[in-house]
Predict the 3D structure of the following.
Amino acid sequence: MALAEKKGLRRSLGPLQLTMLGIGAVIGTGIFVLTAIGAERAGPGLMLSFVIAGIVCAFAALAYAEMSAMVPVSGSAYTYSYAVMGEFIAWIVGWNLILEYAVSAAAVAVGWSGYMAGLLQSLGTPLPLYLKAGMFAVHGGGINILAVGSVLVVTCLLIIGTRTSATVTSILVVVKLCALAAFIFIVIPKIDWAHFTPFMPFGFASHEIDGMAKGVMAAAALIFFAYVGFDAVATAAEETRNPNRNVPIGILGSLGVCTLLYVLVAAGAIGSTPYQQLVGNTEPLAYILRHLGFATVGNLVALAAVLALPTVVLMMLFGQSRIFFVMSRDGLLPEVFSRVHKRFQTPHLVTAVTGVMVAVIAGLFSVSAIAELSNTGTLFAFIAVSVAVVVLRQTQPERPRPFRCPAVNVVGVLAILGCGYLFVSLPGIAQARFWVWTVIGALVYFLYGFKRSPLRKPVPA
């Protein structure tokens, strides 16, 4: 917090803006695209998958709310781990947050490009394959020019200023909420309860069937991606007015709204249309509406996704750039990454570097495996924050806590166990990639960050 006072960011965000930023970060590819993939893995049990993922997130959110109120500076899980468990653990957490923020931003950009390419085709302007799919995509291609362009535009918006980007996000969040409300309003009355039988055709636990992880927990581990983003509110703590009060409101408020919407959308989707018809569909919500005879509304929902998905890219880039900013301020990354623009008062250099990195990933790769890889980093970060809250309650019980996590020894442990169970429910290849990435991060720390850390410098008398 002392470092933040010396080299800090302008406080301009209030509770409503934070809640809207959180909703903007959460509602995106997960609900607009992954609903069909989740249904393929769990059948009607997808509803239960959403509930399980939401409950685990709620436990972790309470831990985040307490830590964000106690340590109201940028950095999210990285900063909290640094304050409680030390530099090395913090570095590993921060390194894996790249999987949560940068990788997921790329995944959302690729998901958005699919909707946009479909819209262009419907207008009579189809793009060739080499411009709408990366060279490492399933069907091959060249460079996903739409995904790259969306990332670069959002990056420029973030450099201009946090308040400006928050205002744009708030407008587009309203567009997303209206689209989902229209879907729920139309689809819920069309529910056929026969579609919920059998409720768990592939069972509860994650297991492989025909080369794919299936079961309620397999879908929950994937659909967890739909909740990624609420913790990005915590990365904005240093730019928030009265962060001790407003950051917990933003975190819990955005998660509560999104969980309710997800359960209603899942119930409407599965209840109105046999889940088998959703398999392989890249725009399931629009498809369901068209299938039910509401083609115009379906097209408007697809248009809403095109307009609003960039808000998720914005919040993921926002979170990643702020984490790099704090790691640089702590001496673990080059100092240039923590420089603030004189006019815009934003960390412009690290935002630009982050944007280019994400644009490259989005331009070359497909969305299929990115969500699962992103979830590994997110779950690891959630476990770290939950551990930090429990440890700090034991080591410093008297420290002021503007927001106290209720029944912390129960909630914290449930968050750790829940995130751990979701982690092991992910496919083995995603888990293996996570550990390889973690080892690379440890090597980077010992070869660069360890020697340059301020903790290695003598304290002046």
